[in-house]
Predict the 3D structure of the following.
Amino acid sequence: MTDASTSAAPVTIALVRHGETDWNVQRRIQGRTDIPLNDTGRRQAVDTGAALAASDSDWDAVYASPLSRASETAELIAAELGAPVLGHLEALAERGYGVLEGLDHAGRAAVEAQAATIEGLETRSSVIERSSAALAEIAAAHPGGRVVVVSHGGVIHSLILHLSGWTLPSAGYTVTNGSVHLVTAAAGEFELAEPDLLTGTGG
């Protein structure tokens, strides 16, 4: 893939959070732990794909994180769009949460209260750097095109923070399972086009 800055043709990227998993229901931190979709998550993926297919323009390709909850979501969306899945990029994988993975929110709060640093927790700046680089490569491969990128709540939340100047679109903002956020890329620059274009039903 080439540098996104080599083409000024704008690219539309639909950032999609994967469908629901059992750990989402249990409000447990997944991170890099490879938890599969549940049946609700599969329905969300199909519904999101159908909604994207009903939009005004065709979609050229789908990319995804290699974690199974994202890769299966991507396959289900691609089937609705009639578009190929062209890559599973490690740079799109969920933020690593280290020792926090598997804990619920109360367990996380307890660990954070006792430790100044969290073993294995990836910094938000690292998440933004690697995921932005992946989006730049994808945009460069599809000048003037429209692509779907299936990733994770921690990654998309970090990107939205970054692109919104560290001001989320609204108070209590969350990235729900199956939700879509549109980003445009032109001349190597990214812009948040339409936050929360579609909202999934999961947590």
Observations:
- The two ends are 34 Å apart (CA to CA).
- Residues 178 and 191 are 21 Å apart (CA to CA).
- The chain has one domain: 4-198.
